Batch of 3 targets.
Target 1
Amino acid sequence: MVTLLTDIPEYCFPHELRTLRFSAKEDCEIKISCNGQEVLFTLTPDAGGIICLDEFDGLLRDLADNNPQQCTIEWNENGRISFLLLPCSICLSHGAADFCKSSFLTLQTGTKHTYLGAQEYLCFFDSSETRPLFELSLLWINKVSGKTKSQFFLETAGLSVTDAGNGYFVLAFSTSQFEPPSEGYVLHTITATAGKERTQVFRVMPAIDGGPVTLVYRNCFGQMESLHFFGITTEELKPTRSSASFQGTTRNYLVESIPEYTSITGTLRGGDIAPFEDLCSSTLVFLSAADGDEVCITDNELSISNNKYEPQKGSVKWRFARDGRRFTLSTPKRTFDNTFDASFF
């Protein structure tokens, strides 16, 4: 007889199942089914009658492939248990039940700085029959009079929410999609909630000097998330040349001309460091929005100091994933179009 000793929750992150333990008196055949794939093991118990399948979390991460999956563990002829595997590529201090109950699927903590026109994404997981709804609360400020006004938006009236399946719900919005309540008011804060415990505050910052750069990436939970760089962004072009001599003449027979960009975060607060590290570890990154141009991060810098008077900051180097040099033809600005009637001259 073979008995499963590991407690398997209804849903979990991979790191919650680091080891599978069985009690057995004979060899045990174990089959793991997930994401249309199957893995078979035949294991022999030790002298104490225990079978351990170590590094099980790594196997689950490979099988999950950034999407929630129904997984099944079967052993011998009659043993069987199923659970929902939630993608998470890091080791959290909390399990899925505690984390998902009170948090959106992001490593962002505290207030997130954004800017007018930025794209934002929020996702949560909920397994209950009556899930909570997204709500947005907007605070507008008149900088001349000092007065404030509030607006509220419900999921059922005006918010675009996607049911991604398996209990995942995604809200995507732009900070510029909301109209001010009166002339002279500017957007100051957006507070997003989903239920009583999930809250994310966005502080709309003024865009000083050059406009901020936004990179949208697939985070450690397999969801899209944006990170904004309020520091400078520079472009550097260093073509790679391959040359050869033919009949006494040296020529470049191949020139790879791919610009590389360096974006600096600006000051990173404590709650921004983990999302920045998440971006640097992501395998899928886009410019500006999830439907924007794909980019490839080639390098990054992040140096965290324990000096409380020293601002923390980081930077990433990136290039476009598909194209080399780009050129955008500017359109002449015209006061009047070609239909202007000049007959009165």
Note: DSSP finds three helices and 25 strands in the chain.
Target 2
Amino acid sequence: MKSFRAKAMQRISAKSVRSAQMIENKLLSLPWRLSKEQIKWLNNKAHDKRPEIRELAQEQLNMRFHPERLAPDDADEFEDLLLNEDDDENEW
């Protein structure tokens, strides 16, 4: 009976490793533009109990939805491009 338990635990462990590898592969091969279902799935994986899955999902979310973290210096340049209300009045 003891060997049956050991084999069962070994199979469960192998399945969980395989599952984690499949999720990591899916996270790394996500398209840039995500559907609503993919965004929901990605948000769920960002709260996964496995730290490697959670970190990778957070990285994917940050790349897609937080561009200010990628290039903080560009924010000043963007603000310069915006028209002020005073500028509009002076042009006419």
Note: The radius of gyration is 23 Å.
Target 3
Amino acid sequence: MKEREIDLRDLLAELLSHWRVLLICMLAGAVLAGGYGLMRALKERAVQTEASVNAEEAAETQEIGETADAPGRGISDGIRLALFGAAAFAFVYAGLFSVRYMMNDKLRAVDGLQELFQISQLGLIVKKEEKERFFIDRWIDVLRSKSMRRITREQSLELAATAVRILIYSQGIANVCFMGCDLKAGADSVIQALKKQLDKEKTQITVLDNVLYEPGMMEELKNVKNVVLIEKAMSTRYDEIIRELELISRQGLTVLGGIIVE
């Protein structure tokens, strides 16, 4: 497996996709820091007022004049501290999120199977788009998709099915095995949709889930010859794909390619 490079654009998109959590962190930082600033200003004012009571009349008048602006200074200090607290909390959250992103060992939708594992990528099944979404969520999708045109889930399913269908036709394949790890995490519905679109080819479709962990599924490999890996992003780990490819190689099977499910 080729070492995965950090995609700064995807990192930014992932961070911004958690904008609600980021906003909560900023509000918490603003409330805590701003509250501290106001409490400190009120405490200073109380001390100054107590000192002015025991001062001489002339000094008392002068002190009162000096403290007249204390509330205004306290509010302005509170606002500055609130802004600082919001920025500090946002920075800390972004830092922790970036560390977690870089330590991630699971497949991402932006990964290229050809680049990482030297197998053809037959498709990327995008997630179903929600009807009611905030503008920032749509903008994040544009940022994540880079320069590629954003398509619907149905279109991505049709494109992946067409890619598999072309392979079946060109190579005269009679049976295909859809294999992956933890397909129930969201890839099983995709497989059913692909099978429905491939029914016209009269090709025998076999589905093997968790071959690495279930001996019964592993034994079924003796009945197949051609494999299409279907992996769920943020569910399948990189090392699991490597182990699947090693198992396929040991069995002398052919990897037609792979499909990532967002």
Note: DSSP finds ten helices and five strands in the chain.
